[in-house]
Amino acid sequence: MPRARVAVIGAGAWGSTLAALVAKVEPVTLVCHDAAVAGEINETHRNERRLPGVELPPRVRATDDIALIAGAAELVIFAVPSRHLRETALAAAPHIAPGADVLSVVKGLENGTYMRMTQVITAAAGITAERLAALSGPNLAMEVARGLPASAVVAALDPDLAQRVSRRLSRREFRLYVNRDVLGVELCGALKNIVAIAAGAADALGFGDNGKAGLITRGLAEMMRVGIAAGANPLTFAGLAGLGDLVATCGSGLSRNHRLGEELAKGRRWADIEATLPGTAEGAYTVDAAIGYAASLGVEMPIAREVHNALFGGKSVLRCLMDLLSRESKDELADFDRWAEQLVASRVATAGA
Question: Full-prediction pTM beyond 0.90?
Answer without folding.
Answer: yes
